[in-house]
């Protein structure tokens, strides 16, 4: 169901339609963000943040927090990899 909502939002945004009647389910968004973070799916998390920019009542602070965590994890992973190469 969540995938359908993301696809619908994407289609509406690509058609330049506003979504004033859609309300965010922040609990579902946070669940998806945590899943993407746990599975190191940073690009998917970035896309989710972009897709939800025009939805009403989205907790943007929470989304950006998850995105920041994902990038920090990615940077730490890359630093460890570079250290192992050196």
Describe this protein with a few key phrases.
86 residues; mainly alpha; disordered C terminus
Q: What is the secondary structure topology, with strand pairs?
A:
Layout: H1 2-14, H2 26-38, H3 42-51, H4 60-85
Helix pairs in contact: 2-3, 2-4, 3-4
Q: Between the first and last Cα atoms, what is the distance in angstroms?
A: 46 Å
Order of helices and strands: HHHH
What fraction of residues sit in β-strands? under 5%
Total strands: 0
- What's the main sheet like? none
pLDDT < 50 stretches: 81-86
Count of structural domains: 1
User: Over the alpha carbons, how many angstroms does the gyration radius reach?
Assistant: 15 Å
What's the tally of helices?
4
- What global shape is seen? elongated
Helical content class? over 70%
SS class: mainly alpha
What's the mean pLDDT score? 76
Description:
The protein is mainly α. The protein has one domain. 72% of the residues lie in helices and 0% in strands. It is built from four helices and no strands. It has helices spanning 2-14, 26-38, 42-51, 60-85. The longest helix has 26 residues, at 60-85. It is elongated, with a radius of gyration of 15 Å.
Concise account of the structure shown:
The chain has helices at about 1-15, 25-40, 40-50, 60-85.
């Amino acid at each position: 169901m969540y995938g359908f909502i993301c696809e619908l939002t994407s289609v509406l945004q690509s058609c330049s339609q506003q979504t004033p009647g859609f309300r965010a389910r922040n609990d579902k968004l946070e669940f998806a963000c945590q899943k993407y973070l746990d599975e190191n799916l940073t690009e998917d998390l970035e896309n989710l943040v972009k897709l939800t920019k025009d939805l009403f009542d989205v907790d943007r602070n929470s989304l950006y927090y998850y995105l920041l965590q994902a990038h920090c994890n990615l940077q730490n992973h890359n630093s460890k990899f570079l250290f192992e190469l050196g």
